[in-house]
Structures are given as C-alpha cells and as structure tokens.
C-alpha cells in the first residue's frame, strides 16, 4: 500500500540515516546538497500493512527506528522464528536482581505472557524490542546518568548504540550467548555480584529468634547465646556446640567471625552491638555500597580495563597502575577536601606527560579567596609566590595597590618557581582536563601517614611520586631513573612525554574487591554513593528486589 508523504519521508530518512551512519554528518549534508537526485539511493515506496504498523511503532524510539530501518522492517521477536530470541531475552532479564538492577523495569511477567500467547502484532514486537533496548542500555552503561546524580561525577559513559546491538542480536547464531556476554566481564564486577548475593543470603528467616542486645564473647554463658547460635545457623553459619548451647565456645566464635567477614564487619569473633544489630536485620546499609559499585562498574563499560592504566580510587586514598589486569604499582594519595569547592571530581582522561621541577600556577580560586585578602593586608605576604601579569611577566609588588581590587577585578596571576618547597614538589603528572586536576608531588609529607587523607584543593598529591615517575617511564627509555634524575638535576622545568599515553581513571568506590574477591569498604567521604543509591531506589530498586 502507498504511505502518505509524511510517513514515507520518515521511513526513507530512517533507512537512509542508518545506511550513512558511518559517514560524518557534515559530509552527509554536503553530499545531499551537491548530489544530483538521480545519484541518491532510490527509496522504497511500497509497504505491507504490517510493515507500516511496525514503522509507526518504532518511529518513537530512535534506536529501534535505526535497527528496523536497516532490517527492512522485518520483525525480530514475532512468530515461532522469534521464539529463541524471546527466550534468550527473558532469561537475561531474569538476572536483573543479581546485577543490582530493578527487575520491575524489564516487565518479565508481561513478556512471559506474550511469549506463551505468541508474538504476532507490531505492538507486541516493539514491546520485546523496547525491553531489549532498556536491558542492553542498562547493562552496558548503567541505569543512571552520572551527571544527573551529582555535579562532581564528570564521567562520560561509552555505551554501544542500541541499533548496533539489535543488529548483532539479529544475526547471532546463539542469542543467549550474545546477551550473556553483554555485562562487564571484569572479574571485579563478578566479585561484586557475588558479594550482593551474599548480602541477600545473610537475611535470617522470619521465625529465627532475635539475638538480645549485648556483647557476647568466648567463655560466656547466657540464653542469648543460644539465640545467637540458632540465628547464625539459619543464615549458613552453623556451629555445633562443644558442650552447652548456652555457652559461647570456640566453634561459635569461628561462626561469628565468618558471619562478620561476609557482612563486611571486623572479623574478631565477638558478637558486639554492631554484629548483633546486623544479624537481627535484613540487608540494608551494607548492600547499598555494593549496589552503587555495580552501577559505577557499568559506567566504566567502554574502557579497556585490561590495558595499562592508572586507577585512583578516591575514598580509598590510593592510586595504582594496572597492566593486563594485574596491579604493578601502588601508592597512597591525598585528595580534595570534603567541601563543595574542593572535592576531587570523577572522570577519565589520558596522561600525556609529566613535568619535572614544575612551577605552580596558583588556581585563580585560591588566588582571590586565600591570597588576595592577605596581600591587601600586607603586600609582602606569601613572599614565596610571584605576582605575574597576563603575559607571564613578574610584577614588583610595590607597583601594585592590592586594596583597589576585588576578587572579580584582580588582574594578576600568582606563580611559584621550582624549588624544594614548591607546592607541587618535584614532579606533576598531566592528563589535561577541563577541571585542571592532576597528580603531583608535595613537600607536605606527614599527611600520608593519616588514615583519612582529604586535605587538598582538588588535585591529587602522590605519596611515592618519584617511583610513580619511574614506573610511567618504564618501557619507553632504557633507564627511567637516570632520565628522570637528569631532568631533576637540571633545576629547570622539564617536560617528559609518556609514550604511549595511558588512561587515568579517577573513580569512587566505597566497596571494592581485591585480587582474591574479598570486598573492602571505604568511607563515603563526599556522600556520592548515598546519592547513587537513592537514585537507584527511585529507579525502582529496593531491598526486596534482590530476592525476586
């Protein structure tokens, strides 16, 4: 049948757009302006009623329109031939809860009903296609938009296009295997999934006795210990009593320690208030960081984490270099203060060079907020810093009336020469980014001995900067230490390129596995994980979803 002019234009544009996706948009526009009409692809003008219905249904969803336009408006899930694909999709979304994703979002019950009845209409076809698009979108890049969660999360998610995934699904000889390969294959993602499953297994059945409040340790006897023994056994930590079930014996201490480790508590084998409170309730606060970590790992989907890279986990106050999935370097770091203007953002950029004997160009925010008031009170204050104009010329302070300027009108910059007490120390590591964040040395060494290290204005101070420089130069020069030392002894600001450049991932995990899969927990210093978990809850996730 003939389509109206509007529908015809829509369908032709969809098909033509899909054909030309690999061509830059400017080139497409120029080609369409200059090409003769006869040279353009001849549009298909006649469609069956079913094809027209499918085109109308898909038109509201760009990713689906992309796929069905290049698929000749042929159904993917309809009829008996689509049964294998429907089964594969339903099996995949049945795993949603294990990934920390809300099962209700994917409407599995409705899909099962449609599958039993047979998918014959365009509307039913699109229902399956939309669930595929939702699932593939979420599992390959997360359910949340990082930028909308918190301003300090600058992460750009590199997710595949839904049309491309649908085309791969349509041509796959094993649709189930294709979907199974979509989630992150990083072993740390799988370790987080296992940790989430353990959290749900730590929920005692409703008929298990509550443990009375108190502090129970080996050698004590009390009826409360019998309740502790029963409740531990109900969640898989049974301890047969060596004598009386009312006595806290060595096997019970081992069971308590096992539960504590599984729950992310210090495994001391003593049932104190925190342990008793945890065993008396279902999954709660302990699961939230794991759910946030799974979402954050999905945000990293487009990055090759097997390639050599720098990984800075802000809440851990730690930086590492990984190569082929293995840690090859580690150092403590100091990060931005837990204040809105100083918090270190999260993002990924490429480290291109290091600067030995760096000058410190004081950020304007520090200049006008911290130093200008001091200069207005005493022009000789902060004498270790030069006052420079826009051209980089040092201006003598006796030529400047600092009192006539405000934070908005102050026309100068401040800069510190290379020196032993330079704020950036002996070296800084540059991965250019809009926020002017970088890694650097520091003369303030005592802060690295503290357990909580959030003291900077936003940049990242490195505990072992010289060792880091050597490791970054390894492989590109025969003697990294000699090359670095020569640059350092020159006393001049010297740039050393890093070849090849490598990614720097500034990440924020308050729960993360080590190489053995054991989950380590860190403080939510900036409150970002709490916001992520709240956003997940709003998206339909709650503790009950883990049991669906």
Characterize this entry briefly:
The chain is an alpha+beta fold and about 550 residues long. It is about 40% helix and about 15% strand. The chain is globular, with a radius of gyration of 30 Å.
What does this molecule look like?
With 548 residues, this protein is α+β, with helices and mostly antiparallel strands. Helices cover 38% and strands 13% of the residues. The chain is built from 19 helices and 14 strands. It has helices at residues 5-19, 25-34, 49-58, 62-70, 83-93, 108-117, 122-139, 146-149, 162-171, 175-180, 187-201, 223-234, 250-263, 273-279, 287-299, 364-377, 465-473, 480-489, 528-538; strands spanning 309-313, 318-323, 326-336, 347-356, 360-361, 386-388, 413-416, 427-430, 439-440, 454-456, 460-462, 494-507, 511-513, 519-521. The strands form 3 sheets. Strands 1-2-3-11-9-8-4-12 form an 8-stranded mixed beta barrel. The chain has a 3-stranded antiparallel β-sheet with strand order 5-7-6, with no helix packed on it. Strand 1 (309-313) and strand 2 form a beta hairpin. Helix 1 packs across helix 4 and helix 4 (62-70) packs parallel to helix 9 (162-171). The model is unreliable at 1-35 and 541-548 (pLDDT under 50).
